[in-house]
Amino acid sequence: MRYRSQSIAYWYFAIAMCLFGLQLVFGLLSASKYLGPDPLLDFLPFDKTKAIHTNLLIVWVLTGFMGATYYVVPEESRSEIYSVKLAYIQLVAWTLMGVTAIVGYMFGWTAGNKMLEQPFPLKIVIVIVMLMFLYNILMTIKRAGRWTVTEGVLVAGLALAAVLYLPALIEYENYTVSIFYRWWTIHLWVEGVWEMIQGGLLAYLLIRLSGADREVMEKWLYVIVGLVFMAGILGTAHHYYWVGVPHYWLPIGGFFSALEPVALLGMAMYAYFAMRRAGFSHPNSLAVHWTIGSTVFTVFGAGLLGFAHTWPSVNKWTHGTLITAMHGHGAFYGAYAMTVLAIISYTLPHLTSDRKVEGNSIGYWAFWMQVMGMFGMTLSFGTAGIGQVYLERILGLGYLDTQLKLQVHFLMLIATASVFAIGAALFIWNFFRTAPKSVAAIDPSASAPDLAPAGHASSAGSG
Amino acid sequence: MTKRQGRLFFIICTLVSAIAFIGLTFDSHRRFPGLTNEDKLTPEIIRGKDVWHNSNCINCHTLLGEGGYYAPDLTKVTQQRGTPYLTAFLKDPSQFYSEEKHRRLMPNPKLSDTEISEVIAFLDWVGHIDNQGWPPRPIIVSGTTIPGTDVGQPPTHASVSTDPVAQGEALFRSSPPACNACHSIAPGVNLAGPTLAGLATRATAIVASPEYKGEAKTSADYIRESITHPSVYLVPGAMYSANNQSFMPDNFATDLEPRQIDSLVAYLETLK
């Protein structure tokens, strides 16, 4: 760590870890409601625990992205962050917004639009926080007068994420139109600009961890983001099946969704070959695990499990079943949760004191228990979903009676989710095990034990 | 490939996709009014949409297949259940389903009478959106049509033969809405409506009983009356009726032709 202001990242990651833990509490609570009966029915029914579970996910992943940006930008632009104070004010406002939203949901204060449940005043706070963040980052880059493609992709991804949140601020009288624009935010986030953020962070990690040539890595970063957008933008169509839009979205969705796994496979190959060339020799092997693991799990969860139900003739039967929960869990975890955990694993030895770069065995237990646990969870949702489609949609068994027959899958879900939660708890415990470095203790002359010389940036405008 | 070519690839891919997407968005807007019957979008329906959002319905149910996957899809619910049924259900869901049996229950949404009628109006408007015919077959909330009944026989409008009983049986599975969406013919299997197993025998007993105040004299008359005027005799149970009104839709007298009602009666009389 060369820049004192990079230590901002620690506090963003610390908040992200707390919210991640809380997300799992509400996840396990929701899963137990599948088994029922529910003693909390009148105070905290499923709709509330689920809304809190998904909102916490979005908030902690975005907190992680912002923390990662505060870590990456100083190194790439070779400059301290423009305003450390603004970064902390932003974190406090963001956290207060998140906590208010959760408490609000518990007491029925909700906009009731899936994933965009934030009531309007909180949506405004989100916009303000995003503007503060982008201002701080752009001023840093402007003052430094240099930027790299890696940070450019990362920051552009975050800026576009803020822009795509804007349609969520508008009220639509027509429910179909409201669905149409809800996906501009949610889909174009997760299968568009968030992948851009993931790509930027991945390129940063790969350059640091493998020592690969920056020119080569950034060239391929362009290609991958190009492929992601080619498939992802028109791939929005797979959310436009059966919701009252023109019929041509069906074939468009089928075709471009089929291309999405190709882009994701490209990203995994990009990571694997970069690391293989370096012989996987970086001392922070835990960060290597998370980085490669994230790309592999993205191909599985987002690519393959997504493609499992985006073909229109398949989706006709699987639409609105637990098959979607299968894909949702695998995709968000592989692409976003794991990317944030990768960047945390890479930066933690720099941000905290008394920590070995190599990591410890708890770190590996945390990795494998989470990966295996999440794999088991996707299998549980997947098998439950297939059972549901067959019994409910093909045979015509009632919805509630079908769910009763899926109890064994829900037991499997809770068992595997518990393995996952233990892995996550180990990660969180490991994170807080040692104190953060005090800012005064950061020695700007100390170099990180990376394989690549850091900060090999393009001059302004040439990237 | 150079970095420059890589960047060019990125820019071209993004621009082409974005322009195509925005073009299709404009065209979709042109078509939304027709596809969603926007002319029928009354203030009551829009208020119903707000009730739907404020009650966070979507984080358990699905609507147009989107939502929480924890409770039944409601896209076509107003075509499967009449307004009296849905009104009574929304007032107190625990009257209709047992948490003991199904291990989940809808919490009471605590809606006013106005809010209930608004949200039903909203759901009815959603049910008429042209959504490419999804779901491909009706999604039933509870119960089963499986045990010993008509598994694997798709609904059909075609007459299977000239025999009125056979025609009635086909109609039972296809009349809009299909009778078997709410009634099973398996003993003890009560869906939204009571089972029709042993109907003819039960009908004879009902017309002879002092509780019966209708005009039917025979079991066939009783069955016909139940189809055309469902509220004349109410099957006991809070899940079947409220305020002396049956939850069964009362549109069959006008929506079915007399010949169709004859064949339905002929078929239902065979359920002894």
UniProtKB/TrEMBL annotation, chain A:
InterPro entries (alphabetical): Cyt_c_oxase-like_su1_sf, Cyt_C_Oxase_1
Record-annotated membrane-spanning stretches: 9-31, 51-73, 85-108, 120-138, 147-166, 186-207, 219-242, 248-274, 286-311, 331-352, 364-390, 410-432
Origin: domain of life: Bacteria
Entry's Gene Ontology cellular component terms: membrane
Gene Ontology MF terms in the entry: cytochrome-c oxidase activity; heme binding
Keywords assigned by UniProt, alphabetized: Membrane, Transmembrane, Transmembrane helix
UniProt-recorded name of the protein: Nitric oxide reductase NorB subunit apoprotein
Gene source species: Nitrosospira multiformis
From TrEMBL, chain B:
Pfam family, one: Cytochrom_C
UniProt GO molecular function: electron transfer activity; heme binding; metal ion binding
InterPro entries in the cross-refs: Cyt_c-like_dom (IPR009056), Cyt_c-like_dom_sf (IPR036909), Cytochrome_c550/c551-like (IPR051811)
Boundaries of every Cytochrome c domain copy: 43-127, 163-272
Membrane spanning stretches: 7-26
Keywords of this entry: Electron transport, Heme, Iron, Membrane, Metal-binding, Transmembrane, Transmembrane helix, Transport
Keyword Membrane: yes
Gene3D superfamilies documented for this protein: Cytochrome c-like domain
Source taxon at top rank: Bacteria
Protein name per Swiss-Prot or TrEMBL: Nitric oxide reductase NorC subunit apoprotein
UniProt source species: Nitrosospira multiformis
